[in-house]
Amino acid sequence: MSVDQVQNIGGGEEGEKTEGEGVVAAAALRSYPVAPGYRLNVRSGPGTNYSTVRVLAEGSRVTINCQRTGQWVSGPYGTSNIWDSIGSGQYVSDAYILTGSDGWVAPRC
């Protein structure tokens, strides 16, 4: 399910979160696995032309803070131009992260 398909089924009472806030909060708390068997480069920006900040070990999980478009990359989960921000100045290609979606799973950066 994409963020655009969420429907508000609550009564909208005061103090309740709006549908957008709930989706953002849920996305911020969820971690996703890196493709099995890969040590993944974390880049300073959304492309392989950016410097490597660090390398994630095999079996790592990441929390996606937000996503943005960047360089197209082919990986075990397809070809994508979505890059996942996992920290300040830290990006990984979504083609290497098992999010269960070919699209956006977090707010745009």
Share of β-strand residues: 35-45%
Gap from first CA to last CA? 19 Å
Radius of gyration: 15 Å
Which residues form runs of ≥5 with pLDDT under 50?
A: 1-24
Shape field? globular
Work out the number of β strands: 7
The number of helices is 1
Percent helix, as a range, is: 10-25%
Give the helices and strands as they follow along the chain: HEEEEEEE
Question: What is the residue-averaged pLDDT?
Answer: 82
Coarse structural class: mainly beta
| Spatial order of the strands forming the largest sheet | 5-6-7
Explain this structure to me?
The chain is mainly β and 109 residues long. It has one helix spanning 19-29; strands spanning 31-33, 40-43, 52-56, 61-63, 66-75, 78-87, 90-93. Strands 5-6-7 form a 3-stranded antiparallel beta sheet, with no helix packed on it. The protein is globular. The two termini are 19 Å apart.
A few lines on this structure:
The protein has 109 residues and is mainly beta.
Descriptive keywords:
109 residues, mainly beta, three-stranded antiparallel beta sheet, two-stranded antiparallel ribbon, 1 helix, 10% helix, disordered N terminus
List the helices and strands and how they pair.
Elements: H1 19-29, E1 31-33, E2 40-43, E3 52-56, E4 61-63, E5 66-75, E6 78-87, E7 90-93
Antiparallel strand pairs: 1-4, 2-3, 5-6, 6-7
